[in-house]
Amino acid sequence: MPDTPELTSIHAADTVVGGPALFGRADANDRWTDRRDPVVVIGGGLAGIAAATVLESCGIPVILIESRQDLGGRASSFHDAQSDELLDNCQHVLLGCCTNLIDLYRRLGATEHIKWYRRVHYLDERGRHHSLWSVPGMPAPLHLGPAMALFGLLSISERLSVAHAMRAMMRLGRSGRAALANISFGDWLARHHQSPAVIRKFYDPVVISALNEDTPRAAALYAIEIFQEAMLRNRHGYTIGLPDCPLQTLYARRPCRDIRFGKRVTEIVCRQKTISTVRLSSGEKIAVSAVVLATNHHAATKLIAPEWLRADTRFVGLDRLDSVPILGAHLWFDRPVMDIPHAALIEGPLQWLFRKDAQGSAVHGVISAARQWVSTPHEHCAALFEHQLRALFRKPQAKLVRHRIVIEKRATFSPSPGVDRIRPPQAPPPGGIENLFLAGDYTRTGWPATMEGAVRSGYMAAGALLKALPHTAGLPSPLANDLNMEFTARWFSGSD
Ligand SMILES: Cc1cc2nc3c(=O)[nH]c(=O)nc-3n(C[C@H](O)[C@H](O)[C@H](O)COP(=O)(O)OP(=O)(O)OC[C@H]3O[C@@H](n4cnc5c(N)ncnc54)[C@H](O)[C@@H]3O)c2cc1C
Q1: How far apart are CA 99 and CA 357, in angstroms?
Q2: pLDDT (tens digit, 9 = 90+) per residue, 19-32?
Q3: Within 10 A of 71 (CB to CB), how many other CB atoms are there?
Q4: What CATH fold (topology level) applies to the domain 21-71+254-321+424-468?
Q5: What values do phi and psi take at 465, rounded to 5?
Q6: Structure confidence by residue, pLDDT tens digits, 309-347
Q7: Which atom of ligand 1 is nearest to the CA of 303?
Q8: How many whole angstroms separate alpha carbon 447 and alpha carbon 420?
Q9: Ligand 1: does its nearest atom lie under 6 Å from the Cβ of 405?
Q10: In this predicted structure, what is the pLDDT of residue 16?
Q11: How is domain 77-113+322-413 classified at the CATH fold level?
Q12: Is the distance from the beta carbon of residue 443 to the nearest atom of ligand 1 less than 6 Å?
């Protein structure tokens, strides 16, 4: 058992400022649950927004500290000086099964900005159009049956092979998929006789984009989760949601009253297993009752003293989480090229396309699991993408007039087999920092690194904190219900 430090990084002469006087000062001898100082949420990405929203709605005083000038973290927008437009760092997609994200958008008054698509478009290597759609009113998993039966992207034997694998996924239920945490999806697909062609045409467009990982390298647990939750459980799970505005607009309604933008937390000051204050880059210190640490895991480990990183088991092994890049390409053509709202592409380099204006001359392309693109010059990327789109849409004269390529090197962690052994829980473990709650897509949410995973983590961290406080312990969990399993899905799977 590692030593737990008694006193870390605190100086008697430090002045504590910033917390509203109403909430009093931290007293090291107090139990943290008795303090009246605010809860500080560090990080204004979706996890921090979700935690702050829940805590403030339960009457807990909250200060949200975000080092940038706006909210959203990795799911946000930036100002493009050339066009004077707000551009998203990358197109963000949600699905109907993202019930917590949808709940957060509702709390933020942003649901009207999400446009839902029941038809999922595909373009094959020759630019031929295929789609998956559901029969209105038909329950899952039958709802996609007619579209799958007619899905010309796959041969008849390939469609039967996919049906066989879907049946196997249904029969696994949630408990069966949990048992596949240490198995790769590549192994699972091989065991279920899924051919390389089926993997390329059917699994890759879903798995690579949803998990930001190559299909064979992903944990079977997470790949199967997508199909179970999005396609096989409830007729609404697979629908694609796309914001009709820059991501930043979704966060116009603030999650809490007191937000400190442009302030970076540099240190979380810990005494006898309890945080007393947080220190900002300005030198200011804020007395806290508790902290929700909602940064990514790279930043999280920099804010905690090394003794505590060893003592609190949540931080052990976090450096083994692998980061995977995503490439987003903003492309402006001199004429309309794209006449459908989105498309999964069977042949690269771009894997998904999204139409960004009414005429279809502004297009956004995405490459997930983009490891080999990190050091490719942007001009070279743009030339390849221009060539790909001209051929795909049969517009040989179309000219790319402008581009903006954004590569997020640390977009998400790799959901590889066994990764859940490293992902930390939100609540403090025995011997850990008692008033430190973790949020962030990397924490143990049961979901891969997605917006839904981030919001779940924020709700789970807030829920754990509320449970620890005597006056809020009886409140129900803030987590939204999953989509219910329809009776036909239950009948087909015979399990949970
Ligand atoms: C290019 C790209 C495309 C993606 N596409 C999709 C998609 O289509 N669908 C989907 O569901 N998910 C997608 N994701 C994943 C999704 O964006 C993330 O899982 C989610 O936004 C993570 O949220 P978070 O709050 O956990 O972390 P973050 O968004 O990283 O938030 C952490 C925040 O903490 C702040 N911070 C860090 N250190 C400090 C400090 N010391 N003091 C104060 N503040 C600090 C940061 O500025 C940041 O705002 C994509 C991600 C990327 C990068």
Answers
A1: 28
A2: 333 333 444 456 99
A3: 26
A4: FAD/NAD(P)-binding domain (3.50.50)
A5: -65, -45
A6: 999 999 999 999 999 999 999 999 999 999 999 999 999
A7: 41
A8: 10
A9: no
A10: 34
A11: Polyamine Oxidase; Chain A, domain 2 (3.90.660)
A12: no
Residue 475: CB atoms within 10 Å: 14
Take residue 193 and report the two structure tokens written for it: 């006789």
**DSSP alpha helices (H): ranges in 77-195?**
99-107, 145-149, 156-178, 185-191
CA distances in angstroms from 21 to 10, 17, 34, listed in the order given:
21, 9, 16
The residues with which 203 forms a beta bridge, in sequence order, are none
Which two structure tokens, joined as six digits, stand for 371? Answer: 């490891």
Nearest atom in ligand 1 to the alpha carbon of residue 48 is 25
Beta carbons within 10 angstroms of residue 222's beta carbon? 26
Q: What is the pLDDT of residues 190-216, one digit of tens each?
A: 999 999 999 999 999 999 999 999 999
> Structural domain boundaries of the chain?
21-71+254-321+424-468, 77-113+322-413, 135-237
Residue type, 394: R
Task: Spell out the residues 6+ positions from residue 472 whose beta carbon is closer than 8 angstroms to its own.
Answer: 58, 59, 60, 466
| Helices 46-57 and 451-468, packing angle to 10 deg | 40
With contact defined as beta carbons under 8 Å apart, do 338 and 353 qualify?
yes
Correct CATH for 135-237 of 1.10.10, 3.30.1140, 1.10.405, 1.25.40: 1.10.405
> 394: pLDDT confidence band, cut at 50, 70 and 90?
very high
**Is the CB of 449 inside a 6 Å radius of any atom of ligand 1?**
yes
Centroid of ligand 1 to alpha carbon of 472 (angstroms) = 29
